[in-house]
Design goal:
By secondary structure, the chain is of the alpha+beta class. The protein has two domains: about 60 residues; about 180 residues, Aminoglycoside 3'-phosphotransferase, Chain: A, domain 2. A hairpin with a 5-residue loop joins β4 and β5.
Length: about 250
């Protein structure tokens, strides 16, 4: 029976039931949740604004602070000043993570080569809440070992809005604003254009292989168009490689 005090939240693709109860959010407790909780609490201790983790409820679900505001994706593509602010936020998260341990036994969906930093791994407009000047990333369940470059590339694709149909000149301006906000150094800027293509291709492959084997929820996501989206995005990014090099210079 449905509890009238519970409200199903929409917007996620891979997550199971996400429920709002008052000023809290309830989510399934996963095999990696203990690692994630420790990471989130470590970030909060360093001043990063992430949702407070409040333990487990009587059903064994995670209990987190409900963050008011609107999803950034509802206003995609974002203006350059907002994108720059997001770049600064991503940099603060990476810097705060730099001295945290990176457990080898922590599984992630798309593992970076030689991971040396715990990252969110899904820093995108569908996981960012905007409430006035407050910017808060939610849905940390996919966090785990990665690298700055791999995590940054995914965020750059989303907040640069490097998607098919986007005017390339506007993408360049947003990508430049994002990297300036992040204050990316020269080696990172030089590596990023090629990593954008690899990161997008990895997303397509993540969906394609389970689609072929029937593994859920990825098979359904592929059939609903996510696979086609990431394939087209990979082609768009690769075709405009020179423009991203200009933006990153």
């Amino acid at each position: 029976m449905h509890d009238p005090g519970e409200e199903a939240l929409t917007g996620g693709n891979a997550s199971k039931a996400v429920i709002r109860v008052g000023e809290t959010v309830r989510k399934p407790w996963l095999a990696t949740t203990e690692h994630v909780v420790s990471y989130m609490r470590a970030l909060r201790a360093k001043g990063i604004d992430v949702p407070r983790h409040l333990g487990r409820d009587e059903q064994g679900r995670q209990v987190l602070e409900y963050v008011p505001g609107s999803l950034a994706m509802s206003n995609d593509p974002l203006d350059e000043s907002t994108v720059a602010a997001i770049g600064r936020l991503v940099r603060s998260i990476h810097d705060a993570s730099a001295d945290l341990p990176v457990p080898e036994e922590w599984p992630v969906l798309l593992r970076a080569t030689e991971p040396d930093l715990v990252c969110h791994n899904d820093l995108a407009s569908w996981n960012l809440i905007i409430d006035g000047d407050r910017l808060v990333f939610i849905d940390w369940d996919g966090a785990g070992p990665s690298t700055r470059e791999w995590d940054l590339a995914y965020a750059a694709i989303s907040f640069g809005h490097l998607f098919p149909g986007s005017p390339v000149g506007e993408c360049v301006a947003r990508l430049r604003a994002f990297l300036e906000g992040y204050d990316a150094d020269r080696p990172l800027r030089q590596a990023l254009p090629a990593t954008l293509t690899r990161r997008s291709r990895a997303m397509h492959e993540l969906l394609l292989q389970p689609h072929q084997s029937g593994e859920q929820p990825w098979a359904t996501m592929y059939a609903e168009g996510h696979g086609e989206h990431w394939l087209a995005t990979t082609q768009f990014i690769k075709a405009n490689q020179r423009q991203w090099e200009v933006a990153c210079s």
